[in-house]
Amino acid sequence: xxxxxxxxxxxxxxxxxxxxxxxxxxxxxxxxxxxxxxxxxxxxxxxxxxxxxxxxxxxxxxxxxxxxxxxxxxxxxxxxxxxxxxxxxxxxxxxxxxxxxxxxxxxxxxxxxxxxxxxxxxxxxxxxxxxxxxxxxxxxxxxxxxxxxxxxxxxxxxxxxxxxxxxxxxxxxxxxxxxxxxxxxxxxxxxxxxxxxxxxxxxxxxxxxxxxxxxxxxxxxxxxxxxxxxxxxxxxxxxxxxxxxxxxxxxxxxxxxxxxxxxxxxxxxxxxxxxxxxxxxxxxxxxxxxxxxxxxxxxxxxxxxxxxxxxxxxxxxxxxxxxxxxxxxxxxxxxxxxxxxxxxxxxxxxxxxxxxxxxxxxxxxxxxxxxxxxxxxxx
Length: 379
Known about the structure:
single chain, 13 helices
């Protein structure tokens, strides 16, 4: 293939003139098919966006990958796949039920808390520490997060969304009340002893509730994992359906293209030469697309080979017409881009050779190597 110095976009499109008379009915049929395909593509885009959004949210809240993958395969065989909307409704219902169960655990925890706060030694811990009134200099230097039972009680009863969401948070704050007192006061002081005694009593009572808390945690984790897997299955089903529909769209487009090609005349030898020369003016990216076009109708074509030789005479009419329109459209875009940038593509001067050399180095070098091999005499 030689560098083109005399090929222009008008020349490449000149053969479109003098085309046979168009059948209006056939045009309407093609237009109807194209509209149908466009409608399918729009629907697929919306469904793909839904899937993308799901996996975007999924990345923010991942479950165990190794465990999840094995469970996923089993669930895919066993569980029926329901719609996304039903999955979301079920997840909301499950969340409501779980919140009620947690509320019951917090109620039972409240019983333990009342028993502790009613102890005769609990009075120093009911209200926040009066640091200024008691003259406790340096208290905030020792205690990072002050805590007391009235603060815990108010947060447990909050209805504005600032309350505790689970029992473990309340448990941690109750322990903090006693730990702060033990940390600030000397070991043998009354307050330290009182705090340590009540902490031990609290831990004993907590151990009675702990099995229920642990059971609820495991149940919650299992439900969340199952809900996540159900959503994955639903979106996997959508992905499969989209894949099948995309294949169907591809087949429809292929059929339309074949019909159009059958209505077209044969590509002339002059047009083949123009197409071949025009290829040398394409960018490396566009040249790769050319190789893809050729490979689509030529399964044996090695588009990724180190040396590539394109024989225009060996290409089908379908491939040649696709190459013709692709090159024409691409060169027109290049011309508009160059013009908007303050210049124009020179297809007749020395710069054209430079563009051709840089853009088709992969093919040109291959042809040069083949020419050297053919001209090389054996020893």
